[in-house]
């Protein structure tokens, strides 16, 4: 949540600076783009928690309920495996960048900005795995 | 390969999250080509390398804030005061207000829930038939997709850009291209409304009501002027316009009008970010799968196969319409765009279809896909929201569907409608 506020404020102040003072903060643009990545993964984690990912979901609507529970377990298990793989490979990517000591902007190392990827995917993998074993987190009714 | 593909499709229709399907197919592809799988992470990280994407969380947040506030009430009151005196005025009000609202919130059923709840009772009370009113609010739920700053327009431009085969296709160009086709749809539906409503009693124009309505909406009125004016004049970049919108809406609704309390704010933020996360994670993994597709030259092979079957551009466009219409009933617009654009765009270019024109065709088709019987999503949302059986909605939306279908055909077979403004002001 703080991230979103920071993004709005930083983006607006950048416009203000550019248009009225003719300057800009050099690290603001790359930081903003990085914030988009962080917001995306945070949002995706929240979507996993709410069981609110975009699905095609054509068949499952018409399945009988026992079969439906089974298919939920299968698809969640699948999603968990995919997330583990994504987390593993992004962790390797981050590790490589750490070895290379590459830099995103000013003195922020690239691996720090990329850390959200393995972390986000790992959390999502965990949530999917949990829902396989404990059943889906029931979404509270929204009014 | 085929077996793996079938398994993935089965998992998808069983309800596996779409991003996991796309990620799995990308990883499977790279694995077979013996490319290190960390390429998926590298591609995903490209989300942080596209400045225009900043617009997506910001516009989404602004849209959620607007729909949580009383802005929909004010919007309806204002358009009613200004247009209500026309024959069929209220119906036209509904269309204009919905188009406007959808452009700012992105079509995701929000319009039906937020505006339909206001407009439907107003319409039936003023003596419009129930079916007419139902059809109108359901149809309007996706009207306005073609107007700036609708997210699908932005998303299409982003995807087309990163394919790198479509020349210079910018968000600004998409915004320009959407204007006339969008107006065409709006105009056709308005004519139909006015014609259906002939014989309705007219309410007279009241200057005092118009004045209060304008005063009431005074804080929101500058918004479209600043955003649209800023973007179309080139004063703001898209992401800058999004930042201004988000900051302004936040300021007005929370601090000035105080319709959203500080306590509620985190909840609205979270809701909007869930949607953003859902879209962006699909976009991220599809950057990887698109990279694989291009690597394996799949779009080119696909084009060759299709070209053997379909020779003329005209037949291609007809098939495209049918395909997109079916797609639109099954997939929600963002995932459809992310999935299909990388495949369709190279084929369409092969047939000499302008990439910008293709985007407009795509979105126009998706728009009516939202309420195409039997499974269009907005039919179910409206049925749920207004407590009417879905079958009644099939009947109620049919005339509206036919009109918009005609509009889609015009848009498809008359490229100049989409491209004239782009040629004059852009490129």
How would you describe this protein?
The complex is a heterodimer of chains A (143) and B (427). Chain A is mainly alpha-helical and 143 residues long. Chain A has one domain (2-134). Chain A is 71% helix and 3% strand. A two-stranded antiparallel ribbon of chain A has the order 1-2. Chain B has 21 helices and no strands.
**Low-confidence parts of chain B lasting 5 or more residues at pLDDT below 50?**
none
Number of domains of chain B: 1
> What is the multimeric organization of the chains shown?
heterodimer
Shape of chain B: globular
Q: Please tell me how large the radius of gyration of chain B is.
A: 22 Å
Terminal-residue CA separation of chain A = 21 Å
The string of secondary-structure elements of chain A, in order, is HHHEEHH
Radius of gyration of chain A: 20 Å
User: What string gives the helices and strands of chain B in order?
Assistant: HHHHHHHHHHHHHHHHHHHHH
Most residues in contact, chain pair and counts: A-B, 55 and 60 residues
Largest pleated sheet of chain A: 2 strands, antiparallel
Please mark out the parts of chain A with pLDDT under 50 across 5 or more consecutive residues, or reply none.
Answer: 139-143
Report the helical percentage of chain B: over 70%
Number of domains of chain A: 1
- Report the portion of residues of chain A in β strands: under 5%
Major beta-sheet overview of chain B: none
Widest sheet: strand ordering of chain A: 1-2
Structural class of chain B: mainly alpha
Output mean pLDDT of chain B. Answer: 83
Query: Roughly how much helix do the residues of chain A carry, as a percent range?
Result: over 70%
Task: Give the overall shape of chain A, derived from the CA principal axes.
Answer: elongated
